[in-house]
Amino acid sequence: MAAERLAADVVVVGAGPVGLMLAGELAHAGVDVVLLEKRHASNQESRASTLHARTMEIFDSRELLPDFGTPPDEPRGHFGGVPLDLTLPSTHPGQWKVQQTKTEAVLEEWALSLGADLKCKHELVAVGEVGDGVEAEAVGQDGVLRLRCRYLVACDGENSTVRRLLGADFPGQDAGRELLRADVSGIDVPNRRFERLEQGLAIAARRPDGVTRVMVHEFGSTARERTDEARFDEIVTVWKRVTGEDISGGTPLWVNAFGDASRQLTHYRHGRILFAGDAAHRQMPIGGQALNLGLQDAFNLGWKLALRLAGKAGDELLDTYHTERHAVGRRVLANIRAQAHMLLGDRTVEPLRTVLGELIALEDVRARLAGMISGLDVRYDVGGPAHPLLGARMPHTALHVGRRRLHPARLLRSGGGVLLDLRGGDAAEPPAGWTDRVSTTAVLPEDPGALHGADRVLLRPDGHVAWVGEGSGEEGLHAALRRWFGPPGRR
């Protein structure tokens, strides 16, 4: 059978949440994108079920929130099992409970509606740079698919095929301990929120549909080398030893084990091949951070890759994807390692947990940890004179545009940059040479104090502040426009 050939601007390998998010971002910008997925059908396993405030803001900037309905909001999260109020200034404070199957369904519908092409039942077997592009080969039930693209992005999970085929350096540590988990119907056990018993850690949460997610770790046990998923009878045995309860009469809908491995790619960019999500970093999925970290990787990369493909910006912009997200990932992996020690450690970690519980009662400590987990405190090095806003996301404050009242995410829906004139009145002239990439809007902030004296701010397409103007001067504006949006176009 002759091989099928396909060309695209970008091939995204992996149609999980991260790959779908990236494909949607690229298609939103007019990029021709193909999603390559080895599964035969949509994923029915809700491994992750938590969306944090920053991710919800991102979804708002793409008008996706209505598709999620009204998920429950839980202000209380945790740090290593110690209760932590995650409430911070945001349109969506706290954490939102959304099954991964729902997140994938929303993102898939969005990406496909914008023109992304999804190729299921195709497993990647070869990939590499060839000349000024990337060539890949995938095997499906109908034969071989050969793809040619300008860039390829690996979003294919912690056991990334792309990473293996490239032999990319992925330093870190393997799992030493693990949690067993399962979604089980037909059992009646008490809800448990990180209950530390004499023999181990037990967690149980009953969903509205009657299914209970159980997770268990026996103190002193070590992670096994697994070639297949954990078995339900294994969980039944450990659950009985830790809690004294028998759940063997339940029906397992999904069973797996996850460990405290911690690894991160040395480089998120390998020429024309890039990595995002768990393909770039492997961590214990504590508190939903793994999923949210990956979605935010995709949001950072999407607009940069789109500008590069359009010829508006050079490689230096694409390089900032690695610089920015590698630093964020390194910080998240560090806090997850600390939490894993507190969660899975035996009784000897109790003094540490007690001290942390006392510290979290201090507002500055609580806010610091909540910002770290929610992603709201991410600040990139964007250059320029020091200012409290630079590099951070646009602060949470309502903005008045004429008679309308809105929040910053609403201004980013076009996918381009925005120069905000915070003095109200008529907007300043759009920056000549960048009007195809940056719009200008006059607004009046409801809380001027949140903007630390800024008169104007330049927002990147991801909502992070790239330049701050005070008074009438425009010093540094053109440099910021060049850095984040490429050189000006011809007049």
From TrEMBL:
Origin superkingdom: Bacteria
Keyword field contains Flavoprotein: yes
The keyword Repeat belongs to this UniProt entry's keyword annotation: no
Coiled-coil boundaries: none
Ranges where the FAD-binding domain occurs: 8-334
Database matches in Pfam families: FAD_binding_3 (PF01494), Rng_hyd_C (PF21274)
InterPro entries: FAD-bd (IPR002938), FAD/NAD-bd_sf (IPR036188), RIFMO-like (IPR050641)
Gene3D superfamilies to which the protein is assigned, alphabetical: 3.30.70.2450, 3.40.30.120, FAD/NAD(P)-binding domain
Necessary cofactors: FAD
UniProt keywords, alphabetically: FAD, Flavoprotein
Protein name as annotated: FAD-dependent oxidoreductase
Native organism: Streptomyces lancefieldiae
